[in-house]
Amino acid sequence: MSERANVTIADLAAMKQAGRKIAMLTAYDYPTGRLVDEAGVDVVLVGDSLGMVVLGYDSTTPVTMDEMLHHAKATRRGVQRALLVGDMPFMSFRVSVSDTVRNAARFVQEARCDAVKVEWKVGIEDVVKAIVDAGIPVMGHVGLTPQTAQAEGGFKVRGKDAESAERIVAQAVSLQEVGCFAVVLECIPSVLAAEITQRLRVPTIGIGAGASCDGQVLVLHDVLGLFEKFTPKFVKRYAQLAPTIRQAAAAYIDDVRAGRFPEAAHGFTMDPEQWAQARRDMGIDR
Known about the structure:
elongated, about 290 residues, about 15% strand
């Protein structure tokens, strides 16, 4: 795969076979999509996490299809190389199969996403199969599923006992068998993630699932230190941009109030004769 070639699902499968790790990040708009794409990320997820880190909701459940599509369209304009995945929000795939396929198709038709992602739920196999049969690639998601986390005991590690671990393995395998091209493993023990990764033919993408997964994904605003409400244990911050932005904004405010900005260098000039003529025409100079 050349440096600037478009990343495909086949490329991701080949990366798993070759033991080459897959790097995936979220992005929610044109500038962040462009920047992570230029950095060389393999997959960009327009995640419903935008509800919390961009829109200010307390969880991901309030996010609507229209909001997801708005951000996916903007992100697509910035992403030229990476595989772009649209995250199907709460209730967009918990409706009839026909409506679910229609919602998935909107990500492809309107936002030009390459694929969609769905979180595990009972009966998801029929949903995934219908989407795949419609020609739309699907990424699955097991373990901690944020859209239903509160109803399932809160935001905590899943699969820590034998019964739930076996259930998560079965869920991941079933998603592969109905056509998912990759499966996200979120907040599960590392040994469990390693077992699933070994069993599956398709790539696993971990988030709080240890180093044995075929790839990793993080929320960009966590990586950059822009989201300050909380920091999940599995996050590694690579920058602290929130204080930098706050300081820059405060310095600008101080300069404006003190008259230090704008300076002459930030303004534009006008030919003196033209200005004199304008003043005469406006009756300022008689």
